[in-house]
């Protein structure tokens, strides 16, 4: 009986359970699409843009989508091959076939626009392109974390943001990298780690954030992964340590640099053809993001916390320095704490460190777009933090995601919108500061999570053979 229980804990969901999980995910995304589609049509102008005051509708009914907005803003009805023509003006305006996203998102935008003539058609085509990424993410999360993946399948972020932007393409790459490392270990650590690095490089060519996870993955490889841990509950034993060529007295420097080089090389190889076809257009997308100002729409603590304290002419320059410095500091702190854990006998907790780094980025970056919740949600599934953290974050994010658009509606229709007059404004304040406080707490919670092992990642041993468990591990 005990052996059967152990097997259940160390394997993922059955194929039938995974299929059910994907069905639930599909239904949630379908609900999200239905919400976004409320902002389209029923009548369109000659460029295929929805009439009937879409701006007011999108804020009033919380159905705004960057997918629909981009149709008109970037004239996608006339779009050529992405980045091949165009650039950015001195005023920061994009023109030609340039979109403000990394190249693979540009390709998805172009594919979604090929056979449609309206913003409603573009929304539907883009949703069809993105939906498989959401389903595959659910499948991998189910394999890795069993029924905790229901947080992904049924979570409010999937309703609010699945088709708000193109982030699902980057999310699936991040989760796929973790899956590659922790489900395919028969050939040792290096090969799955390099596969994961390729996925992180592809993810960075969708949205840049997956690139940050290459550093903790490299440290995981450097220290021997699970084989580098003294605790047999997480390690693979002496034989596996010899097979990987790593033990606690020997670092795998070549493997670590291989991970970093593979991730960077993959990103470069994906970008190279676009840079060769139209360098000005390709570079314009990066220049656009670098020049983005910190305003009301960025939803960051910098706008709400620092702007009232600093002169307007100094604010942007100050944030331009403080934000990246503090983001990098949070990365260094997360990695240092991970190495401290490894030095005490556990495996370097690269997934927990990656989650903490993401918290630091979301808190301290100058922009916090609503759909960034999709970036963090898989880590709330993968790292077994307490349920209270998950619920609190989802509530704060929903307050922000819904309250912000309702607040914009009140402002644009000259209705009372002050904090003491409007529940929507109060929801925004709860969202901004509640979410910020939770990101600080989650930074610590991820790094302090109890020891965990992904199902199937390593066979358990008898309790008598185990040393005391470290505070957290992979």
TrEMBL record:
Signal peptide: none annotated. It comes from the Bacteria. The keyword Transmembrane helix applies. The chain crosses the membrane at residues 94-115, 122-141, 161-181, 193-222, 256-283, 317-341, 347-365, 372-396, 423-447. Coiled coil: none annotated. This is Mannosyltransferase (PIG-M). Keywords: Membrane, Transmembrane, Transmembrane helix.
């Amino acid at each position: 009986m005990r052996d059967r229980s152990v097997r259940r804990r160390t394997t993922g969901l059955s194929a039938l359970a995974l299929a059910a999980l994907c069905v639930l995910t599909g239904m949630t995304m379908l609900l999200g699409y239905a919400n976004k589609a409320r902002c389209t049509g029923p009548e369109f102008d000659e460029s295929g843009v929805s009439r009937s005051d879409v701006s007011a509708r999108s804020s009033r009914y919380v159905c705004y989508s960057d997918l629909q907005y981009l149709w008109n803003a970037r004239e996608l009805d006339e779009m050529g091959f992405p980045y091949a023509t165009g650039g950015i003006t001195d005023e920061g305006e994009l023109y030609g076939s340039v979109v403000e996203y990394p190249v693979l998102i540009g390709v998805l935008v172009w594919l979604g626009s090929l056979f449609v003539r309206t913003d409603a058609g573009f929304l539907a085509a883009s949703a069809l392109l993105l939906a498989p990424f959401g389903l595959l993410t659910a499948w991998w999360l189910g394999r890795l974390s069993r029924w905790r993946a229901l947080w992904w399948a049924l979570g409010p972020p999937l309703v609010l943001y699945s088709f708000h932007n193109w982030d699902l393409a980057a999310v699936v790459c991040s989760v796929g990298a973790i899956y590659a490392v922790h489900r395919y270990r028969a050939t040792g650590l290096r090969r799955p780690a390099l596969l994961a690095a390729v996925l992180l490089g592809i993810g960075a060519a969708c949205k840049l954030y997956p690139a940050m996870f290459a550093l903790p993955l490299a440290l995981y490889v450097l220290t021997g992964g699970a084989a580098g841990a003294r605790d047999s509950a997480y390690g693979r034993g002496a034989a596996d340590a010899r097979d990987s060529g790593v033990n606690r007295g020997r670092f795998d420097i070549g493997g670590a640099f291989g991970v970093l080089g593979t991730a960077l090389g993959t990103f470069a190889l994906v970008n190279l053809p676009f840079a060769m076809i139209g360098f000005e257009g390709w570079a314009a997308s990066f220049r656009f993001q670098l020049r983005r100002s910190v305003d009301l729409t960025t939803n960051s603590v910098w706008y709400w916390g620092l702007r009232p304290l600093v002169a307007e002419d100094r604010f942007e320059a100050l944030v331009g320095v403080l934000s990246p410095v503090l983001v990098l500091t949070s990365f260094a702190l997360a990695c240092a704490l991970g190495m401290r854990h490894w030095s005490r006998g556990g495996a370097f907790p690269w997934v927990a460190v990656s989650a903490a780094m993401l918290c630091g980025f979301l808190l301290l970056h100058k922009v916090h777009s609503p759909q960034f919740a999709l970036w963090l949600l898989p880590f709330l599934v993968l790292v077994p933090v307490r349920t209270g953290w998950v619920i609190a974050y989802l509530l704060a994010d929903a307050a922000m995601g819904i309250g912000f658009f309702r607040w914009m509606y009140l402002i644009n229709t000259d209705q009372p919108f002050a904090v003491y007059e409007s529940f929507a404004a109060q929801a925004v304040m709860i969202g901004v500061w509640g979410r910020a406080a939770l990101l600080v707490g989650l930074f610590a919670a991820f790094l302090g999570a109890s020891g965990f092992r992904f199902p199937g990642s390593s066979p358990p041993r008898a309790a008598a053979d185990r040393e005391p468990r470290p505070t957290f591990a992979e």
